[in-house]
Write a structure and sequence with these properties.
The chain is 41% helix and 17% strand. The protein has helices at 31-43, 80-92, 113-130, 147-150, 156-172, 180-190, 205-209, 239-251, 272-281, 298-303, 320-327, 338-347, 359-373, 383-404; strands spanning 15-20, 47-55, 69-75, 99-104, 134-138, 174-177, 195-196, 225-230, 256-261, 287-291, 307-310, 331-335, 351-354. By secondary structure, it is of the alpha/beta class. Strand 1, helix 1 (31-43) and strand 2 (47-55) form a beta-alpha-beta unit. It is built from 14 helices and 13 strands. The longest helix is centred in the C-terminal third of the chain and has 22 residues, at 383-404.
Amino acid sequence: MAGEPPRRETPADPLRIGFFGVFYPHSERAGSFSTSLVWELARSPRVALVRVFGPSDAVMPPGGDPARLKVEGTWEADRPSSLLRSLGRMWSARAGVDVFVFSIYVSAFGRRAIANAIGMLVPTVLRVTARKPVLVYMHNFFETQDTATLGFQVGGVARLGVRTLERIMTASTRVVVPLESMRVVVAREIGGACEVLVLPYLEAIFAATRPDAASAPRPAPPPPVRILLFGYWGPQKDLTGSLRVLEELVNDGAPIDVTIAGEANPGFPEFGAQLEQAKSSLPKAQFHFLGRVDEEEVFPLARRHHILLLPYRATGGISGVMNVGALADLDLVAYDVPQLREFARDLGEKVTFVPAEDAPALRAALRERVEFLRRPGAMPDRVLDKVAAAREGVDRFIALLRPAAP
């Protein structure tokens, strides 16, 4: 903490980690990832303390150990001055920190360009001024995204500015990305080295393993087959098209029940109107809209379903929602997006992929999966094995931090 003297390290010393990112109770902007990663770091015997520098209303997750986890609200999205204030707080805490970890991406700091520019510079400035190792888990780069499909219109000057900030980051900090294809793009188009680390099933680990977590048994055998659509809704997802296909299946007598969970992407609040329109027009007996889901309820929600539908037109990297569904051992049906296919391969998950926005293909795939899941014993239950795999991934993450520490 601030004012603590530096300690003399030995190879066996557990790490003291300073962590920057969106944090509990937030799930947007990789908040679910960050909360679960910190949760697991703080329970590791190789970590002495995680000090979180999160949004202004960030708090300790229920069941967190205050001796091993400290949470400070230090910044706000779209508030550049708050990012500078957070930088100052981290710099002041440097004596009590062995390594700083950032969980960010290009637009993680809000909708304003100036906020994102300052946010992207914070890891570098901290590395130079605090003289502490800095590891950035970069969920995506500008060059690794289909920005037009994701809903961003970026001019030439802005592109040059973003690339400059990215090059500064890769040159001055240790950068880790979740996909090999992203590492290739960074090396080719940005320059600078980055490492690849897949963290399987991570986003729902907090909800699945916290001390007060209720048991999450599978639902009774179908019918109906319960289908879940979950996440933040915006231009990157085909909500309207996928719901139209599901409505047709209902009208044709398919034994399905559909849950639409989540809210509009904070970067595209106008999509809230699309959710409301769908809610008012679809048959309420088979379509259930939940709105925002608290972090504690994410895993139990997934476990109450059989199929997770991922109608992505494009992704900004991996899919945290796929991680949730895979941990819950759901049957996965997804639009065929290259990064989703790569991530499914890395997870070792069998996914039914269909061409994006191909309604007949989606209808046929869902019919086939519904019929399959109605068979006795169709769904195995590998949750405990997957929790163990998630924790092994976090152990590999900690191993990355150790060489970075002084």
